[in-house]
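Intended use. Records such as the Aminotransferase class III-fold pyridoxal phosphate-dependent enzyme entry shown here are meant for training and evaluating sequence-to-structure methods. They are not intended to support clinical decisions.
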Amino acid sequence: MTSPSLLQGNSLAARDAKSVIHAYTNLSTHLTEGPLIIETGKGINVFDENGKEYIEGLAGLWCASFGFGEEELIEAAIDQMRKLPFYHSFASKSTEPGIRLAEKLLEIAPAPFSKVFFANSGSEANDTVVKLVWYYNNSLGRPEKKKIISRQKAYHGVTVAAASLTGLPPLHNDFDLPIQNILHTSCPHYYRYSKDGETEEEFAARCADDLEKLILKEGPDTVAAFIAEPIMGAGGVIIPPATYFEKIQAVLRKYDVLMIADEVICGFGRTGQMWGSQTFDIQPDILSCAKALSSAYLPISAVMVSQDIFDGMVKQSEKHGAFAHGFTYSGHPVPAAVGMRTMELMEERNILGHVRHVSKRFNERFNALADHPLVGEVRTMGLIGAIELVADKKTKRSFDPKFKAGPKTAQAMQDAGVISRAVAGDNLALCPPLIITESEIDEMFDRFTKGLDDVAAMAF
Ligand code: PLP
């Protein structure tokens, strides 16, 4: 972080503190401490305004899958900019990049989806999903069947409905959220919430039972859908216990509740398969995706729906004259062209094969941290993982929040040259660009461990 003295005068940091409201930032300390200004990027690295190099251990925000200098994606954007820099999709207008990308998504989808709707962010995609679930049930003459069940610690975004789906209290407190008809069931975090002696399968059964009890309490005729990230990302990188989705989906089928997969982080190779839904055998009726869809080079997200849901939408559109939903930039040709090139590069360079190969090293290095005195749990799969810091390994006691173990460790790691993030408390996540090599993984973990050791020296 920039030192306070640099906030004097007309430095970029001072100008930032004077003019910019930062997302997910302590606005008060930012006024005196200022930003870290990133100037350039190449491969898995970014460089700050003083030329210091960092490994971007989180691919930005779990998104820049091809790193920070993929010329093919830059060229795709420039070519499309020259041809047609903008057009929209309202009133039956269309462009070739949007059509091609929709076809590609349907071809690689993990379920037999029928159609694709484009938006600009994961939050917009999930807000769209909420509206589609309501629209669909109205088309079926089921005006009562509207509640959507999410999970504690889920992350689905920040817009009004998406933040309501999110199960993290800071996104609700004083924002007057969640809105009505959004409920939260138990978080499938085995390390934190399993009972003594309970197996993963037994814990999964208890989570499914909690869901069933909630559906019965609310009334099955009022519950429309269940939404889940295959691996919960911003909630702490929580990997579901064995048989979790199998048991959850059995409950959903019993009560005619739709399954929505939020693939905003897991989609496009993160778990070693194209979709987290494939890794965990999820059969979604609706799927939202974003981030690695364009390697984050330009904003684009997508929602895929089943034929049944699309039929309901057509019926509603016949009734109302138009499907009255869409963004100015839905299907924008430039991000769509970059998204299409991203999908092609995934195939041309066998990114899935690469992820499966290098994730072995990634998982080994993560698991080697299990014995570290600060680490309570290591959770890792594919190229995503986190360590959970604890004050006492035996009792799993967390640090006093006043100690700020998570943010302190993230800062120590940044000083050591790797950008990680403290998520949902004291969990330090890694989710590097998918193009990372084995030797880069080693260097990333060397720096990560150095940051951890530096904080351990302060903690004990
Ligand atoms: N869903 C998941 C699983 C996410 O991780 C995120 C963002 O991190 C979102 C939705 C929201 O996406 P966005 O920040 O693009 O609105």
